[in-house]
Design a protein that fits this description.
By secondary structure, the protein is an alpha+beta fold. 29% of the residues lie in helices and 22% in strands.
Length: 1474
């Protein structure tokens, strides 16, 4: 370690003789110098007395430097010891605290036994190489908040606020750490979880730290207008690779991905590069909603080799401190005087004792909460409050014990005198460190350590494991038994014990004792007259069983979760069984389950006893199952949880036990037959996946370049480097702004009597509150939606807005909002809370036809504009066509019929950036920066609510951190609340919804149930198709009307039914307003039609793909909406797509291979399916303005009315301008979207806005070409031509207005098909998507890379909809799946192992913009191929189990529970080989 030059020296005294030394850089250097200058031998250590007079020995450089820092601060002498001298003869004194020579330490500071020992309130740490010294920081503040709010390093994002998405990732290194301690090597951290007060002595690197500063001191600007958007302008290689590889769409998550990858490379240092598998496993804590992950993973795969620039993994700005003023290692105390929160950090048990005495009696909340990494407190503790209400609560007193020397012993394998082998580790050892140690062990009998390491890898995510300790994980489940620890059952199964320290209020820490893990979890804090008894974990003693010639040990861990990685267990099971090798019987067993019983960790003692002395056979298996049921009763019964049924939890427990029996059978009688072997192989883990393989195929049409080419987003590098400014970053430039937070209802369908804001007003930093009384009488948002409900109103749902609290900081606003008390009328038992379609249908809670039409008309008129999905041509809530000309229409003569129901749930948008607004008052109006898809709608909503003119409200959008339809209308309430507050207080108002509040307030995709009936002939050809669509629109139906109309209008998909009927019903429930979500209504109705096709195929015993193809539209046939298939404008490429994909994907060969696999595997089944899509697009839905300005230097500025939400619209607009003007792309910049520049545009949505904007740019550029034509003929260069035109006073600003209408329902259709192959774990319902092949007709694509990214991203969003994204409510109307902890979008380990996308070449759209077609929404419906593949795997399992192969209904999402239930596995299904 290097230290800065010091003005101080060190005085060393020996028997009155004094020498002055330079401040030592190491212990050895000091000793060598002292020995030479005094001529005496020295002991190789120093000593100093602590405040109790006990001698503390210093034996290495790190301890010396820390002690010197303490000496400076507290005046404690440091003593050298001469080998021949008596104690106290030497004294080393830093001149910052000079003492007279005193032997035997009699000059030590006196400690008052009743006070804390010399507590420091100074926090020292480094950010990007710069030291920060903070006096008494706020214990409530996180590192992410400090980086963003105090340092304005807004590249670090906050998306979930609980460590579940990775947007906040930074790299951390603890500068005082030694080998074997947390932070000794660079690690990825979730800065939103990390308390600022815990950063003492740490060095942090943020995304801003990776970019090299210009050597000449000049600023380096991102090349936002350059086609070479990823050139090396000081950007790190990781940033460049991500940007160049199309790994950036909305870009909000990109800094987190970059920092996660960078941390891995820094951790590796000069070692061998990480493998592709290492890279993918390391990124398990990062989420992306846009890209579908493929481009991110492939971009980072480049770092699995050493090819490329030397040391490209190193930071270009070397952000680690080159000089370091060491942070003192004394006890720390930070206190927020206003909030009364306190934070202590102690380094010795003696200091802990003094701190506990300083705290005083433990009464109520005034008691210490011992923390290590604090990941649970800041992250997930809120989900496990005893009353079931989700709330973030920070302990009043936190005591950081992670630096206690007694807790920091590194993992080690030791042999006891009795010959036992133990794994020992201190309590502060992180899970990640423990994994690294276990994986490094070379000798591991029975793979005990490897099994444990693999299981621990499934705990949380890499950033959480990096910092979270094993002891904290266990302690959390002790405090909250319903938290399912993955660590506790594994350690308990191995018979682990822990040394714990007794702590008691008002008393010294008493004796240490040893507890088993299971006993510790049963020893809850006890309240008595003297206070609260508590125990603190000190270390781990984990026996490692060793095989002998007579006994073999089998240790296995199993976990089932909603998602493959970064997902908490539904049920886990960890087992250690010892088998006598001669008798083949079980001689001991330890069986532990998590997530099964209400009392928490379950040791199945009855099952253990029933296994002893028994062979692994079916009789014993049944016996153990019965015993387990007894254990469950003793454990308080199965957990009652509406998210997962008791039957499923018990089924998982038995499945885990069955796998254990297979392992025992394999050990005693094995090897297992092939039919059973796959059941015990790892499945659905990051480690069990091969690295992602993918291929992208497309052709570039050189006649329209740079259109059609693979041009990365022009601002991709800004997003990847953290330079891009998002709406939620705007506060950093808004001087004096106040912050807002909504107060939302916690009751549904209940009368609100009053709001009590007095408790909120007492929160420090509280400023004001906006309520219904602040809104002008009669003023509402669009669709008569009130901004706030008021006293006396019946509040329709939980999450309804009641007030908007303003504070001086974001945390003050949120804290004050949480303190507002709601007074409700007494509950009426007769009042129902309807939360689903079933209840709504039973209670006739639907809108009549006229009500639906009125709602649609009202919605359409919002802003005076048509909106996607709501145009006149889409006012279709029912359609019916009858045909009585069999010869002409080809109606089958022989009919059979099928009927059924397809039920689909909702889906949350989970855009990475929550709803955000910055409202700034001006002298004559307002300026609003918003995350927005429809600025015109926001403008009109705000102006009408405030009673001002639209020209006084300027809505601005630069970029949005994801939207997917969630910011079409639901951005308006926050924008209106901020605008209202800004006008009232005449101050800028900034607000960003906290993630849980955002999900509670805003709706998503509508739950839809479709009843269908179809008549067909013996070959499967349709005669008629009748569909009834039931849609849950929430409490207010304005968005749902348009989405329901789209569901009806797309219900035919690609299939011709001579007699076709589709009706719909819209229901009102007491849930939040449903809003459009990518391909709204379409995914549901298209899948329902395909379910009918699948039902027919199953009814006839025909292949699914055969029945589908048989019913494709034929050229000349007319859709129910009047579109003529294969007409001049409505081209029809689907048959060629289908045939080409069928061949390219080797569908027939793979289908045979799937059948072969299923025949050989009992508990793993595969399915393969192929599905098509026809996605109609209408120009009638869009109108866009573009303004193109040419400047004197030849540069071009484009402004348009669309919103950049990640789909690359700005890039496509720039490409169009470059092509039409015939200039280089680098000469073009695209400006912010503003209603003052481009008014009256339709919303950005439905995949058509990019095309429309490109057309508007085209029209404007053609106008400019006309004005420049003669000058370009006369002048040799573009610049000279522009200059000449300006000299002639030619206007070089032009508008393009794209507002085309067509007479038919659709102008054209996008077509595609997909083949998906899926593997299913029959025992648990988990799936792995093995391969997906997609072939799309996008005409002549506008941008190959961006459009393929849209296909991949849309497909993966739909995978979440079909499999993992579950939206549930309880009986009181409370949404259960909110936040990243409970709502699981796909992770990078959920995408297909092989993901191939091809764009059909040579088929330009005859009426498309530059021959293009829409790309973003059509692919979503193709993910139904994975749904059907999973269903076919279930059929295979049913057949194998003798359950038949009859058609069955499988709801969406088909979660792990739904798939396992569908397999019809019962206790009798479990049998062993032979």
């Amino acid at each position: 370690l290097n230290f800065p030059p010091a003005t101080m020296h060190v005085k060393v005294e020996l028997r009155g003789e004094i020498r002055y030394f330079a401040r030592p850089s190491s212990l050895n250097a000091l000793l060598e110098d002292a020995q030479k200058r005094f001529g005496e031998a020295l002991h190789p250590w120093l000593e100093h007395p602590d405040c109790d007079g006990d001698i503390v020995r210093i034996s290495n450089t790190e301890e010396l430097l820390i002690a010197m820092g303490i000496s400076e601060q507290r005046g404690i002498p440091l003593r050298l010891a001469a080998a021949s001298a008596s104690e106290g003869d030497w004294q080393l004194v830093d001149s910052g605290a000079v003492f007279s020579h005193t032997a035997h330490g009699s000059n030590r500071p006196q400690c008052d036994e009743g006070k804390a020992p010399h507590l420091s309130s100074n926090l020292i740490f480094w950010v990007n190489g710069k030291q920060h010294s903070l006096e008494n920081p706020d214990p409530a503040k996180t590192l992410a908040e400090f980086l963003r709010e105090d340092l304005h390093l807004t590249g670090t994002k906050i998306a979930c606020g609980e460590g579940g998405c990775g947007c906040c990732t930074v790299m951390g290194t603890r500068m005082t750490a030694i080998e074997g301690e947390v932070g000794a090597h660079p690690i990825a951290l979730n800065s939103c979880l990390r308390p600022l007060c815990a950063m003492h002595g740490w060095s942090v690197v943020t995304i801003e730290g990776l970019k090299k500063s210009a050597s000449d001191g000049s600023a380096i600007f991102g090349s936002s207008a350059s086609a070479n958007c990823c050139k090396d302008d000081g950007y790190h290689a990781v940033q460049q690779k991500l940007a160049a590889g199309n790994g950036v769409q909305c870009g909000f998550c990109s800094p987190g991905w970059v920092m996660a990858m960078y941390s891995l490379l820094e951790k590796r240092g000069d070692q061998a590069p990480p493998s592709k598998t290492d890279i993918e496993q390391h990124l398990d804590g990062n989420l992306c909603r846009c890209t579908g992950y493929r481009p991110i993973l492939q971009a980072f795969h480049a770092f699995s080799t050493r090819d490329g620039p030397d040391h490209w993994h190193r930071s270009l700005c070397n952000p680690q401190p080159s000089t370091l003023t060491l942070a003192a290692r004394g006890p720390l105390h930070f206190a927020n005087q206003t909030s009364t929160l306190e934070w202590y950090c102690v380094f010795t048990l003696k200091e802990l004792e003094q701190v506990l005495k300083h705290i005083g009696p433990w009464i109520g909340s005034h008691r210490p909460y011992f923390v290590g990494a604090s990941t649970g407190v800041r992250g997930i503790l809120k989900y496990y409050e005893p009353d079931g209400v989700i709330r973030r609560t920070i302990p009043a007193i936190s005591v950081d014990v992670s630096q206690l020397a007694e807790l920091k012993s590194a993992p080690a394998i030791v042999q006891t005198p009795a010959g036992r082998t133990l794994l020992k580790a201190g309590a502060s050892v992180s899970i990640g460190m423990l994994i690294d140690f276990l994986e490094a062990q070379k000798t591991d009998q029975g793979n005990i350590l490897g099994t444990l390491a693999a299981h621990l890898c499934r705990v949380a995510s890499t950033p959480v494991r990096n910092i979270g300790s094993w002891s904290g994980n266990i302690a959390l489940t002790r405090a909250r038994p319903l938290f399912v620890s993955d660590v506790a059952p594994a350690f308990a199964a191995l018979g682990a014990s822990m040394t714990v320290l007794d702590l008691q209020s008002g008393k010294r820490p008493s004796h240490q004792k040893t507890l088993s893990v299971e006993d510790y979890l049963l020893t809850h804090p006890a309240q008595d007259v003297g206070g609260i008894n508590e125990v603190m974990i000190m270390d781990l003693n984990l026996p490692i069983p060793q095989n002998t010639p007579h006994v073999t040990h089998i240790f296995r861990c199993f976990k089932t979760a909603q998602r493959h990685v970064n997902s908490h267990s539904i049920v886990n099971g960890c087992f250690l069984v010892s088998v006598d090798t001669s008798s083949k019987t079980c001689v001991s067993a330890r069986l532990f389950f998590g997530g099964l019983c209400t009392k928490g960790l379950l040791q199945a003692t009855v099952a253990e006893e029933s296994l002893l002395g028994e062979l692994a056979n079916n009789q014993t298996l049944r016996k153990v199952f019965r015993a387990l049921e007894t254990d469950v009763v003793k454990g308080g019964g199965v957990i009652i949880d509406p998210k997962h049924s008791a039957a499923y939890r018990l089924a998982l427990a038995k499945a885990h036990l069955y796998r254990l029996f297979l392992e025992i059978w394999d050990c005693t009688k094995g090897p297992l037959p092939k039919e059973f072997a796959s059941a015990v192989q790892p499945f659905a883990t990051a480690a069990s996946r091969p690295p992602l393989a993918a291929k992208q195929s497309f052709q570039v049409d050189k006649s329209v370049t740079p259109l059609s080419e693979n041009v990365p987003k022009l601002t991709a590098i800004q997003s990847a480097s953290g330079e891009a400014v998002y709406p939620s970053d705007r506060f950093s430039n808004a001087a004096g702004c106040l912050y807002g937070a909504f107060v939302v209802s916690n009751r549904a369908n209940r009368k609100l009597l009053a709001l009590d804001v007095v408790p909120a007003s007492k929160v420090p930093g509280y400023v004001d509150v906006m309520m219904a009384s602040d809104v002008r009488r009669g003023k509402t948002l669009q669709h008569d939606e009130p901004l706030f409900f008021s006293s006396g109103d019946i509040v329709p749902c939980q999450g309804a807005r009641l007030a908007f609290v303003l504070g001086r900081t974001p945390s003050a606003a949120q804290e004050a909002a949480s303190k507002v008390e709601m007074v409700w009328a007494r509950e009426d038992p007769q009042t129902l809370v309807l939360t689903n379609i079933k209840d709504a249908r039973q209670n006739s809670a639907f809108l009549g036809p006229q009500e639906v039409q009125d709602a649609l008309q009202h919605a359409q008129n919002a802003g005076g504009l048509d909106r996607r999905g709501l145009a006149r041509s889409r006012r279709t809530f029912s359609v019916e066509r009858h045909c009585d000309q069999p010869e002409f229409e080809g109606i089958p003569k022989t009919e059979q019929s099928v009927s059924g129901t397809f039920a689909s749930g909702g889906q949350s948008h989970f855009y990475m950036e929550p709803q955000t607004t910055l409202a700034t008052p001006s002298e004559d109006g307002l300026e609003l920066w918003t995350g927005d898809q429809d600025p015109a709608y926001t403008q009109k909503s705000v102006s009408e609510l405030l009673g001002i003119q639209a020209n006084q409200v300027n809505v601005k959008v630069r970029r949005v951190g994801g939207a997917f339809g969630g910011k079409l209308t639901q951005q308006a309430p926050l924008a209106a609340a901020c605008a209202l507050s800004a006008l009232k207080l005449q101050k800028p108002i900034f607000a960003v919804n906290e993630r849980l509040a955002d999900m509670t307030m805003t709706g998503g995709r509508e739950p839809i149930t479709v009843d269908y009936s179809a008549a067909h002939d013996a070959q499967g050809k349709l005669a008629s198709l009748n569909m009834q669509i039931h849609c849950d629109g929430g409490w207010l139906s304005y968005d749902a009307t348009g989405d329901l109309a789209m569901a009806v209008s797309f219900s035919d998909n690609v299939f011709y039914a001579p007699n076709f009927k589709c009706n719909s019903v819209l229901y009102k429930t007491h849930t939040h307003v449903r809003t459009s979500q990518r391909a709204p209504g379409v995914v549901q109705s298209v899948t329902a039609t395909q379910v009918a096709m699948e039902h027919i195929s199953r009814n006839l015993g025909l292949p699914f793909e055969t029945v589908q193809k048989l019913n494709f539209y034929k050229p000349g046939q007319i859709t129910p909406w009047g579109d003529v298939i294969a007409s001049k404008s409505f081209n029809w490429t689907l048959p060629s797509i289908w045939d080409k994909l069928h061949q390219d994907a080797a569908f027939d060969e793979r289908s045979k291979a799937v059948k072969g696999f299923n025949a050989c595997n009992r508990w793993r089944k595969r399915g393969i399916a192929m599905t098509p899509v026809k996605y109609g697009m209408s120009y009638n839905d869009y109108q866009s303005l573009a303004v193109v300005n040419i400047y004197a230097d030849g540069s071009v500025l484009v402004a348009h009315g669309g919103c950049e939400i990640g789909q690359g619209m700005h890039t496509k607009a720039a490409q169009a301008a470059a092509h039409v003007l015939g200039i280089d792309l680098s000469r073009i910049r695209v400006d912010d979207t503003e209603t003052s520049k481009a008014p009256n545009n339709t919303c950005t949505g439905g995949s058509g806005t990019s095309e429309n904007v490109v057309n508007a740019v085209h029209l404007a550029c053609e106008t400019l070409n006309g004005r420049l034509a003669k000058y370009r003929k006369e002048k040799p260069t573009w610049e000279l031509a522009v200059g000449a035109a300006i000299g002639d006073k030619v206007c070089l600003s032009a508008e393009g207005w794209s507002a085309e209408t067509t007479p038919t329902q659709y102008a054209y259709a996008t077509y595609g098909a997909a083949v998906s192959e899926v593997e299913l774990d029959v025992l648990t319902g988990e799936i792995e998507i093995l391969r997906v092949d997609v072939l799309m007709d996008l005409g002549r694509q506008l941008n190959a890379g961006i459009d393929i990214g849209q296909v991949e991203g849309g497909f993966v969003i739909a995978l979440g909809y079909f499999f993992s994204e579950q939206v549930l409510w309880d009986k009181d109307g409370r949404q259960l799946n909110i936040g990243s902890w409970e709502y699981k979008i796909p992770s990078s380990c959920d995408v297909p192992q092989e993901f191939n996308v091809e764009l059909l070449p040579g088929v330009p759209n005859p009426i498309g913009r530059f021959g293009s077609k829409a790309s973003a929404e059509p692919p979503l419906s193709l993910a139904a191929s994975a749904y059907f593949a999973a269903k076919f795997a279930v059929y295979a399992s049913r057949e194998h189990l003798g359950r038949g192969a009859a058609f069955f209904e499988l709801p969406v999402p088909c979660t792990v529970e739904e798939l396992q239930r569908a397999c019809l596995v019962d206790d009798e299904s479990f049998d062993l080989p032979g």
